[in-house]
What we know:
nine-stranded mixed β-sheet, single chain, disordered N terminus, alpha+beta
Amino acid sequence: MKKTIITALLALVVLTGAAQVQPTTALLGSWSGKLKVGVMSLTIVLHLEQADGYVAVSLDSPDQGAKGISAFKEYLSDDSLAIKVESIGVTYRAKLKDGKLDGKFVQHGFTIPLELTQGVPEVKRPQTPQPPFPYETEEVTFRNERDSATLAGTLTWPVGYDAKSKQKPMVVIFVSGSGQQNRDEELFEHKPFLVLADYLARQGIATLRYDDRATGQSVGGDVKNATSEDFARDALAGIDYLRNRKAFSKVGILGHSEGGLIAFMLGGKKKVDFIVSLAGPSVKGDTLLATQGNRIMILSGQLPNMSVKKYRETVAEMNNPWINWFIDYDPSDDIRQTRCPVFALNGDRDCQVISTLCLPAFQRLLPTSKKNRIKQYPGLNHLFQHSATGVPTEYGEIEETIAPEVFSDIAEWINSIKY
Length: 419
């Protein structure tokens, strides 16, 4: 799962506060640096912007996708500043030294040095496809009537597609992980579904990627009380739409994280012709999330102390319909009932859906088939990036969106089950 179910308490990067202004200062501009928390390194960006004769102060934590957050000013001059975020007990005080803001980031009694240099770090995403493209795309919508949701997406046709040809391409519908995602599954300016769709189109495979309900151009559908069962109906509506077009030989599903869970919910009901599970869970939700919490604690330099019982007690206080459903759901029966070909893959540095926990369960539960493939990738994290540790705070720092061996393996496998 992505940010929705990260159980470690990364409060240091949830920066909130009240806006404050100050007469102009020589420190105008943007300043950035790395906040080192254990083995993690979090990018912090401070903005001092002119606003009608005053200076507005705001913060970004791009590694958490947080931008433009107002900060309360305690002091601001031409060479010094002090800001405060009262809601989480954070202060930052710094003085200009050799062209850099040399300061201390303090939270709940813990003090961390934080040096900021002028400028904003350049975000590079070299794998993001750029036009012109050698294939056609089509903007489409489909309807989940039961939930009153209209989903908007992009149907990408393969290179050289000819509607008059008797040979029909295979098509894959993409289902994103937890949290509301757009059709590209965009996170930290990475667009993994766009990268995958582009590559598969060049390998003769059509794809449909769509904005999650009430996100992007998709409208309708309850989000506040929705569970994976509701999101599975959205995906099924897309599958039905593709079948009704009668333009494809086979209709498969590619699900990432929670999307992988949904893939097997539909696979167990014989709704798809094949499944690609990218870091999909294969164990009961409470076990998955407790294990996730312990792994992130270890990587953050803490002692792991999360039991299933403790995790359930913690989330019970949240009274969140999605998490309440998720911790009780065991995908074992759906996986056992899945008869279509399956490619289940995981990175060994995934600290959200642990490969050593989930891949053996797939091996044990899936019906025996020569077409099935289960693979663990060394050095890859939950987003299938090559990573140093796998902690979520690395996602935005890594330029790579998806390891090339992953999307080439996916295309090769799908084409191998064509007949």
